[in-house]
Design goal:
The protein is α/β, with parallel strands linked by helices. 25% of the residues lie in helices and 28% in strands.
Length: 807
């Protein structure tokens, strides 16, 4: 029977009040949450508690509550290792809370101070109940650290778990996956967005901790630059002045100056000694606990006024009198900033007042910019930033956890959707009748599905495929390329819109993929509908714009592209009489945040960036709400002069001609077909002509024809694909290195059909002829007698005839 099982009876749960020691409500709740989680689950548990809210007591009590056999405690530094080892060896935190009987024995504890190089050294830990170590000393590495026995630990406690995605941490936790794992952190998110693997089972936000009286007031004092003086000197003088003012007010406040490197810390230590009277001690994470205690004693006895520390020395360091912070290099990470602030926010005695941070107003990131502005109310900003960021993380994990993994091959068994960051690009379909997200998309035969997951609550399905491709010049396996692609399907049922986000964006592939999933009619959006995603954007500036000629004649240019810093300003009323709106790419503000956004008449939209899955699905839902609204979209730019077309439900009668899409003209595919002799002919698709054969209301039959070969197709809205074959002899097209039937290609690279009314039809978009174009005033025509003027109208160049002029 282990120490924690034998002595569980000595643990109690007294509740603290104004006059009685005991656990805070949050600490008891965290312990019960851990017990509940491991009752029915085995995945790692994440406990989110702000720095200074009593996390250490929860960590010490957890082995008793979970009735552990042997515990491994992982820490980020030597100092924290020694501190936690002592806490376990004396159970000092639990005894102070009167949660552990004074007569109860303490566990046997070993603090690992060197690399565990051999299996025998691991075996030497079996007599101990708790092993406390920094990760580098126990993370297996060839010729350095041996792999721990699988049965040695049944509980792993990770302090400051935001470090856990780091390579050495992650490798060790994977090896110890058979043990229950509890990850403690104040910030369950990272600046690099790498996943802290596990399930958040308990969270205690800063606002609640403040309301519970654990945290006090926080203030920010802006330090403006002084002409001719180094900003570090200015901040140091301001810190010294604040220290003096607090001491005169009877407050026993101490100073902390933090630096991110040892050299920088030493420079600041010397600077404070030269320019102020403050007595600051120098502390870094490599110092022993006994050295730190000597400094703490000096601080407590008034022999020192504060400390200069390096980087994350504050982790695990408890000194409530630290209430004045000189910030010479603001943290660029919200997680580190909040943890640093948490050290100063905790309440203490009557002679401890408001914490003050002194720094030059500095905008180190979008999230932190407001914190370093003069006049910012830190009390609310810190709580709001922290709580909103944690809420985002909890919501994101809820979305990720909602996916049922249906297939996961090979080394993807432990793959997490949390790590996906797809590009924000989507093809959008209107699906009337619903979508079956559990129906497998029709992937090309060369694509092997290696991962698939479906989330019914969030209307999403994700597939990852693997393709083995050979170069055209060799089929030897030595030269094979393995390519992976991700496909994300999101159906917004409220607005009947399906978003397809794919890293493989070949046009004809979309149609093929979604067909098995579609329960009803499948239609791409009209140009008018897809342009509605621009609604609500402020300060729209277009830097790439397509203009489609309304009525091209003969071989006239049918599509024009303009690029530049503000091409929307180049659009004039004269352009609006000749052109309709094509694609656009622009920048704008969306809710105050800068975005770049692109829209294509081919029912595609994109934003220049990569997003995690939860945020991507949220973005698609935002787009869906805009697309569903019928209100006109005004951008207050020249874009408003160009018509985005009208929604079309039925193919109109009277279609007389057709031309290829601009995509075909820009990059024409290669066509392959058999001639009359059975020989395979390979030509450019533009060697064929588009000819309208028959046009009635609802359908338009047309031919793709050359001197040797003709294929016929039908354009129809609402009967499945917009383009379908009427001819069994369908030529194959090569788009890049891939084959596709011509009907599938034309569904994506839709031709433009022209009516006798001068209207143009593109898919589900109708562009009407503008009737406001006035005829030329015939009275302005002047007749000229060319012969009387001496003009030779039979010659294109001047002849040496006296008195004659060529035209």
């Amino acid at each position: 029977m282990s120490h924690f099982v034998r002595n569980y009876q000595h643990l109690s749960f007294p509740v603290a009040d104004d006059s009685t020691a005991g656990f805070r409500a949050a600490q008891i709740a965290a312990l019960h949450a851990l017990s509940a989680h491991f009752f029915g689950a085995s995945d790692p548990a994440i406990v989110v508690m702000p720095t200074g809210s009593g996390k250490s007591a929860v960590l010490t009590a957890a082995p008793f509550v979970l009735r552990a056999k042997r515990v491994l405690v992982l820490t980020p530094s030597r100092l924290v290792r020694e501190q936690l080892a002592e806490n376990f060896a004396s159970l000092v935190d639990l005894r102070k809370l009167e949660a552990m009987r004074s007569t109860a024995p303490s566990p046997q504890v070993c603090a690992v101070g060197r690399l565990v190089a051999t299996p025998e050294e691991w075996e030497a830990f079996r007599p101990f109940d708790v092993v406390v170590a920094t990760v580098p000393s126990v993370s297996p590495r060839p010729d350095a650290v041996a792999t721990p026995p699988a049965d040695l630990f049944d509980l792993v406690l990770v302090d400051e778990a935001h470090h856990s995605p780091a390579r050495t941490w992650a490798a060790l936790l994977k090896i110890l996956a058979g043990a229950r794992q509890v990850l403690f952190t104040a910030t369950p998110f990272r600046r690099d967005e790498r996943e802290i693997a596990g399930r958040i089972v308990f969270r205690y936000d800063i606002k609640r901790a403040r309301d519970d009286g654990i945290f006090g007031e926080i203030g920010f004092q802006a330090v403006p630059r002084v002409a001719g003086e180094n900003i570090d000197v200015t901040i140091a003088k301001a810190v010294a002045a604040r220290f003096s003012a607090d001491r005169l007010a009877g407050l026993k406040h101490l100073v902390m100056v933090r630096a991110d490197t040892l050299q920088r810390a030493q420079e600041l230590h010397d600077l404070y000694r030269e320019h102020t009277t403050l007595r600051l001690e120098f502390v870094r994470g490599q110092h022993s606990l006994s050295h730190v205690r000597r400094i703490l004693r000096k601080l407590d006895e008034g022999q020192a006024d504060g400390i200069v520390c390096v980087n994350m020395f504050g982790e695990g360091f408890n000194l409530p009198a630290l209430k004045i912070a000189g910030i010479h290099s603001p943290h660029k990470s919200l997680a580190v900033t909040l943890q640093f602030i948490g050290r100063f926010a905790r309440r203490a005695g009557r002679d401890i007042g408001t914490a003050t941070f002194l720094a030059e107003p500095h905008e180190s990131s979008l999230e932190l910019g407001a914190l370093y502005e003069a006049g910012a109310t830190w009390r609310d900003l810190v709580a709001n930033l922290s709580d909103s960021r944690v809420e985002e993380e909890v919501a994101a994990r809820e979305v990720i956890d909602s996916f049922d993994v249906e297939a996961s091959l090979g080394d993807l068994e432990d793959f997490s959707l949390y790590t996906l960051r797809p590009y924000c690009h989507a093809k959008v379909y209107r699906i009337v009748g619903g979508v079956d997200l559990r129906a497998t998309p029709a992937f090309p035969s060369q694509m092997e599905v290696v991962f698939s997951g479906v989330s019914d609550p969030h209307g999403a399905a994700i597939y990852i495929t693997r393709t083995v491709a050979y170069p055209p010049w060799c089929i030897d396996d030595k030269f094979a390329d393995v390519n992976h692609h991700v496909f994300i399907f999101h159906y917004n049922a409220e607005h009947e819109l399906l978003f397809v986000c794919a890293s493989r964006r070949r046009d004809a592939l979309y149609e093929q993929l979604v067909e098995p999933m579609t329960l009803g009619r499948q239609l791409p959006l009209s140009s008018n509908a897809i342009n509605r995603v621009l609604r609500g954007l402020q300060g729209l500036t277009v830097f790439s714009l397509g203009l489609r000629l309304r009525n091209p004649l003969g071989r006239t240019e049918s599509y024009q592209q303009r690029s530049g810093g503000q091409v929307d300003r180049t659009v004039q009323e004269a352009d609006a009489r000749r052109y309709d709106r094509g694609h656009l790419y622009a920048k704008a503000l969306d809710g105050g945040a800068p975005v770049t956004i692109g829209v294509s008449a081919a029912s595609k939209l994109w934003r220049n960036g990569y997003l995690p899955i939860p945020q991507l699905l949220q973005l698609f839902d935002t787009h869906a709400a805009k697309i569903a609204s019928s209100q006109p979209v005004l951008t207050s730019t020249g874009l408003d002069l160009l018509s985005p077309g009208e929604d079309l439900r039925v193919v109109p009668a009277g279609i007389v001609s057709a031309i290829w899409s601009e995509e075909t003209y820009i990059e024409a595919p290669i066509a392959q077909y058999p001639n009359e002799d059975g020989e395979v002919v390979v030509v450019d698709l533009l060697d064929f002509e588009l000819v309208v054969l028959d046009s009635t209301e609802g359908t338009c039959d047309f031919a793709v024809t050359s001197d040797e070969f003709t294929w016929t197709g039908r354009f129809e809205i609402g009967a499945g694909s917009l383009i379908r074959a009427l001819d069994d002899r369908e030529p194959l097209l090569y788009v890049g290195h891939e084959q596709t039937p011509i009907a599938d290609y034309l569904c994506e690279a839709l031709p433009s059909f022209y009516c006798s009314s001068l209207a143009r039809v593109e898919g589900t978009s109708l562009f009407m002829h503008r009737g406001d174009v006035q005829p030329f005033d015939i009275n302005r025509i002047e007749s000229v007698d060319w012969n009387a003027a001496g003009v030779d109208t039979t010659s294109e160049k001047a002849r040496n005839k006296p008195g004659s002029v060529a035209i």
